[in-house]
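#structure-requests
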Amino acid sequence: MDDAHRLAGRRAFVLGGTGGIGFRVASALAGFGASLDLHGGSAEGLERALASLQAAGAEASGTAGRIASMADASFAWERAGRADILVCAFGPFLQKPLHETMPEEWKLVADLDLALPGALVSTAIAGMRTRGFGRIALFGGTRTDGIRGFRTNAAYAAVKTGLSSLAKSVAAVYAAEGIAALTICPGFVDTEYLDEGLRADLASRSPRGRLVPAQGIAELVARLLADGDALWNGSVLNADDGLISW
């Protein structure tokens, strides 16, 4: 089967799909024939993303709304239940040392960076089991592929590390039913959300003196999700260009 039809007839729900890595993953999935259901934080961002995708011939729809709590994500349950492919590319970043991290900040990152993807996975799996097919991509944090200590973002890293266990659990229980999941841990990725000062700083701390291209990660993830055999099921994938520490 040619690439343009590998995911024909499959529906992808991309949380955080109107910008950054999420939008690029959505675009790459459309290149394999998937139809798209996107979530974005703003109506303007969603409109731009849909216009771009539809101009390229993709079948795409979506919804917009800021997610500041689990309650704000109630729209997502039905969409996840219909999805053959679930991509979670959303989650707030928190950079604070532990002694400055407040209880409400712990709750925010635990809810939105772990509980929300977990709930979406649980919801999606129910529908995927009935169809005998499912693909799940979860985006972890930089260097959260294993248990490590972090000086300035321990809360964020702690909950993102949990996504690796989630993907492995999906593989352990549901592989025989045609469902596969992986967690991607990017390095410092070049997206529109970085200002020039931060872009230069992160590039200087990256192995090749450059940021990781968002399009490269997106194409890699989409190709894995379009792989019929999914021998990668349960994998935790570093996409950090060889980053050692930060």
